[in-house]
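Much of what follows relies on a compact textual record of a protein's fold. A complete example follows; check for yourself that the lines match position by position.
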Amino acid sequence: MLARRPNDTVTELLTLAQSDSHEDQIKALRTLASLTKVSPQNRNLVADTTGTIPTLFALSRSSSSTIEVLSLSILFNLSLNSNLKHILADMELIGLLNNIILAPISLDSGILAASLVCSLAMLDKNKAKFGVAGTVQALVEALKRPRRAASHHLLSSLSELVRFHGNCTLAVRAGAVPVLFGVVERMEGEDLAGTSLAILGVLAKFKQGIDAIMNTQGVVNFVVDVLKRRCMLSKEGCAEILIRLFEESEGCLRDAARVPEFSSLVADLSVRGSAKAREKSGVIMKKMMDANLDPFLDGNAMIYDW
């Protein structure tokens, strides 16, 4: 049917999606979701059909969880086409996504809203839009409430948004630093911890971010402990945070050097870590030697070619 009369088919489906019959609405939206799931050409066709995007925006406000989820699913599918990301990043939709993130009527709607933010934010021009609209604050607020199934999507969206400097400032002011450390501390999963520490590593590159991290009680011991027991992505994030802490304060460097096993942990990372982790561990060891500290306080000395 789509191959014979594509525009007419989409128009008919949109009409059905707005009908008084809940069953017809669901059938039409499921068909549109299926059409846009795997075909970039179908996504462009659906998006170019008059009235599609305003209709989907309106249906995304439905009190029916099923209608809301299907509408968000179609919008997410459309967002996969790079040429549609700018069109979809309308302030009306962004405001709607913020509201869903803060108060989802279902788990699926919250996940889809966060996923749509992440997809649209991959276009750099959209990152500032989300910052202006309060999405960074909404994501941080949502992360304060432990929801294991949604946390990954919330963190992925925040990770994408903080690639824009202005959004880093917004994240720190919204209290992202203690929230992200809290995600790591809750031990909810290696992927969540790794993403949280990667975001903290980005925030640490800016003055407000590193100040907030340094003001976290026991931060050096906490980061070193995570370095000891977490996945490689987490270790990379920890190393980045430690480097910034050491650049800001020699006291932090000395605190780390006094932690049992710290030097051996860094040495092990320099040998068995990822390429990024090995690079960062080398920076840490050099900072210790430049500060006239013994980088092998626990006796696990190794030879390195700097």
About this structure: Confidence is low (pLDDT under 50) at residues 296-306.
